[in-house]
Here is the input.
Amino acid sequence: MNKEIPLLSATDVELRVAQIIQGKSGTFAILLVYKNARVDMRILDEVFGVMNWQRKHDVINDSLYCTVSIYDEEKQEWISKQDVGVPSNSEATKGEASDAFKRACFNWGIGRELYTAPFIWIKPGDCNIKENRGKFVCYDR
Here is the structure.
């Protein structure tokens, strides 16, 4: 199984505000580069073929795990990699399943470059930072 996972392209990733920082030089937003699960599915389809990968979810010690298996034609067997997810703030169960899947795909090499992405921050004039109940927020995409 010598298939190469491609690097993500600009169209594969999105940005969201991860944190608002108030520093000596003013308030600014730190951005997070991320991908969604559909990107992982597309890459798995393209690299391994639609019928040559599968996913399975299991609850282990009250946490949701996803196992992504890829069929190795040389070995004539399924090779699996697994990881755990964490619930999201908006849709806890769906977010946990998606997170576990994306993390399992990371174990296959999809999106590893996101963890070495450059630090991205923007000034308040370039986004809509507001104060809400004593905290700074920004919902721009």
Notes: The longest helix spans residues 92-107. The two ends are 38 Å apart (CA to CA). Residues 71 and 77 are 6 Å apart (CA to CA). DSSP finds two helices and eight strands in the chain.
